[in-house]
# Entry
Amino acid sequence: MQLVLTMAPKSKAEKGQESSKNLRRDSDEYRLRRERNNMAVKKSREKSRNKVVETSVRVETLKKENDELEDKVSMLTKELSLLKELLLSSAAGKRKPSNDEHKVNPNGQSKASFSVQLLRQLVPDKAYNNTFLNNGH
# Structure
């Protein structure tokens, strides 16, 4: 009776490990694998550097946008304070608005609302802020 032993087929990982371990440094296959690996490393590092640059650009864009929005919030807060002050002073004086102020223009706005919008169109934002909002109004 004769006994025959067979080995299970090797997995790809086992084949790769075995073949890379058995390669001599002066062989063509070894140099080819090293070259491929070096190219893969360069590509990976370049991709990583590009991602850092893109992220930095995005951060700067978002910071700028955030500053603009903070400026807008500040301006609107000051405007709200001014309008509250005007409303309270008007109510404190118990002044009745004239009939003319309640009239609606063709756009469906009251004259007072229309006047504020017209003033904003005529006076640039920065000048409007400096003149009307920063003078204690």
